What we know:
Layout: E1 2-5, E2 8-16, E3 20-24, H1 38-42, E4 46-50, H2 69-83, E5 89-94, H3 96-107, E6 111-117, H4 128-138, H5 150-160, H6 162-174, E7 188-193, H7 201-210, E8 214-219, H8 226-229, H9 231-243
Parallel strand pairs: 3-4, 3-5, 5-6, 6-7, 7-8
Antiparallel strand pairs: 1-2, 2-4
Amino acid sequence: MITRVGPYRVHSEHHGSGPPVVLLHGLSGSRRWWRFTVPALAERFTVHVPELVGFGGSRRRMLVRQPDMQEMAEVVIDWMHAVGATDPVRLVGHSMGGQLALHIAAEQEMPHRLVLVNASGLLRPWTLPEAARLLSAALPPRSWGAPAFLPTIAADAVRAGPRTLLHATRHLLRDDVSSLLGRITCPTLLLWGALDPLVPVSHGEVMRDGITDARLVVLENAAHNAMADQPELFNRVLLEFLDE
């Protein structure tokens, strides 16, 4: 399905029936990053899976620049209204998608429940010790996540292209969600992979402490893509929270 939102064409898939759930993928991702999650959710919910501008099937036209995080959040809000995914929506965001979900939840009284999966958005000091720590954390193969998922990551990154990835990464790293945390009023679940070398569990702890009604669940054998690394456990914890 293609939905026009301003100058953008947003590609999305829709599955199941019931209350709406929106799944937002991370940087360089696509709808395929949720392929283990959608079947479990579609048994109880209407699952809306957009591909963010610049990624997957939502390719931006050459003369349209990559939107920054606030602009992307506004695109997603307009898209949610256009497809009827608002009443009352469960919003689930992974990595950059989690960062966008925080913007949406802070600006709108829309989410009935919010789920942040290894969410980015907290600034970090890019010192030499921090760079060394990140490198050492990323070296063990188990930190890369499920090997079977790596071809999907690579293919989606190639499809997005270096220009889009460069601009989107720059927007992501310049955006700090710290001031938004206190404005989140809906029940919030933070789902984190313990082995994540990109966004460590300590970031999840900061977000949990900053959001009034939040709890953190750490998946011990998952890395950055927790929904693909430990899909059965991830789905069980997610459904328990959404069904409460």
